[in-house]
Amino acid sequence: MSNAYEILSRYDPEFPRKRAGRLLTDTTEFMNIQYGDVIELDGTYFLVLRDEKERSFGVEDPKYWVKRCRELHTGERKILKLVFYEKFPVSLGSMEIECFRSPRKEARILDLVRGDGRFMQGYSRDDAAGNNVRVLDVVQGELLSLAIDRLEADHKTYFFELLPDILDKFAEACRAIGFLHRHGENHGDIRRDHLWIEQGTGNYVWIDFDYTYEFRESPFGLDIFGLGNLLLFLVGKKFCTTFNIPRPGFDGLADVPLEPGDFTLLFRNRLANLRKVYPYVPRTLNNVLMHFSSASEVFYPSVDELLEELLPCIDEIRRRRINT
Amino acid sequence: MDAKKILIAVDASENAARAVGYVADLLAGSSGFAVTILYIERPPNRDLFADEASWIEAGQAQELRIRTFLQQAKTTLTGRGLAPQSVTIAYVPHCQSPVNDAAAECSLGTSIARDILQFQQRGDFGTLVIGRRGVSRAEEFLFGSVTTKVTHLAKDCTVWVVQ
Questions:
Q1: Do residue A104 and residue B46 have CB atoms under 8 angstroms apart?
Q2: At residue B134, does pLDDT exceed 90?
Q3: How many separate domains does chain A show?
Q4: In this complex, do B145 and A217 lie within 8 Å of one another by their Cβ atoms?
């Protein structure tokens, strides 16, 4: 078949002829690939539906190198990540590091985690120009952070009734990151936007592994810090900050003296010492959180060491729930 | 361990140059010392490059910079009176180096600090010298520090940290 219309009329006869675009085997010019185009990859056809968008602070930011597609043969929704060698500075509080997008890294991790439900699934193929295109399954579900945000329980109820089960699943997500580390890989961009709850199973699923940076002596430190940030979000049911703590709707103690050492190492307005505003947070769990504070003298060198201290805390919250 | 066998662990940084300068000043005109200037290769991260050719090119540029630094370091030491035969250069390649062939002794790249200490133990170096740049605690937590790890893990030798 020599053009997109022929392919579409075979696999999707209802598709309007006037919307049929080009048949592409080279995805280098990803900015020009749009709705109605068909990408051929190793004999498989993908109808381009739209550019993927990243949503933050209510603003949609199009990712032109990420295409929402339909695999024409199977009808399945897929995400095609095209090659975009982007180099950009990422601010981590007061620090700035240089990050890169690496298709090669993501493709390698997709191979490593094939069949492991704790990670997004997919495969990679080179297009005719040698661009490494990643073909990803769409994770059915929603962002963990949005699901947590939507819970209507007050913090104390959330903490004792819901958090232990959430932390069990988070611990599994941490083990998944530990699995990457044991294989010499890192996630590279652990944050709220990259952890989903899978519909049906309720499992936590990591997405987007293409970030990388120059490694130094602790190649996994940034991942562990990302896990710490997520843990702070989960325990607090939000990030407790100098912005929201003084507000009338804050559901913890707002009139407690807070010191610089109570806040996180990199985000100086984000509280790590959650026990100060939620006094029922057990000391043991608070101690784990304080490893990510600017007052900490030690940092978890591995996911295993983080889990070693976190797991007993989950049981402790459960025991306290029964006692209260 | 022989305290007069001195190992200076370097990269091509100013801190490493300071460490070399310190040893040169300290040993100026002395005899009976054997100094080895050690570099453990840390090639550019392969994932940052679109293709093999650009990665190799970056590796070559880095290697040239490092080898130039090592020669300058030797010149600094001999220029202060150390006998040329008492100053040795050791370049330990990465096991998957883009520019150096596989060697019997190579670095896996998992920890430069451990590689340095392994070299020190095997070579019976009683003194280990290393530079230190002033990193913030945040940076040290997130990315680690070779110098900090060396000082924590070193055994049976004296470590001089030059800042």
A1: yes
A2: no
A3: 2
A4: yes
